[in-house]
Fold each of these.
Amino acid sequence: MLPEEQKAEKDWRYNPIAKIKHFTRLKTSKEFNGVYNRSTKTWHTPYFVLFYQRSDTYKAGFVASKKIGNAVHRNRAKRLLRAHFIEHIDQLKSGSYVLVAKPALLKESYAVTDKAYLHALKKCAALLSN
């Protein structure tokens, strides 16, 4: 197999979630409550709430309650939040992040919510200084 063919074969398997591998997922309610209660910064936008807790580890959690809608809407909201997170993962400081979706997230375009996401990270001082 030629090198170009090998590269093409790997490209179709590219998984953007692989970028998140140095972040561990928050899974239990105890972990989520720890970030909620001890977060060093919190920022509200019309589309989501960002909780940030400084620490040496990298952790992330995405939440969409039943206020968002049925299971399809909740999963879409979490996918959108995860996409914003993965897109800017290289710019984030270490710590624990919890993103809680609001119903307006599903009604707005990706570009507008991405701008709000970056603004929230700046306000929480969660971006690495370049």
Note: The helical segments are 3-11, 29-38, 71-87, 110-123.
Amino acid sequence: MHHTLDSTHMVAQTALLPVVLVFAGVGSALIVALALVALARRHSPSYLLVALALATLAARTVVAALTMRGALPTAEHHLLEHGLDVAMAGLVIAAVYCARTVEPRRPEGADGEESR
């Protein structure tokens, strides 16, 4: 059975979109900030890749906001969002691969002996 959405439902969805985008933008910015803090503490290639993957969430929000404002046509919107999805997946896979195959860096002076 095929259902169609009535105009009231469509208006409600359209009215909620800016609210959802604000929450998505703030949330993704906080997540990226936390990822950058972790990267600054760990200085690891896998942490960099995770931070970049999470940054694609913020980029998707920007793409949606530009589309909503009419600055980005719908066709480009879909192309960019799917491209960002592919980038995120690739960055996550690369981060896991990097974490599993690259030997962790040891801090200077850490040779397994306790410092005195």
Note: DSSP finds three helices and no strands in the chain.
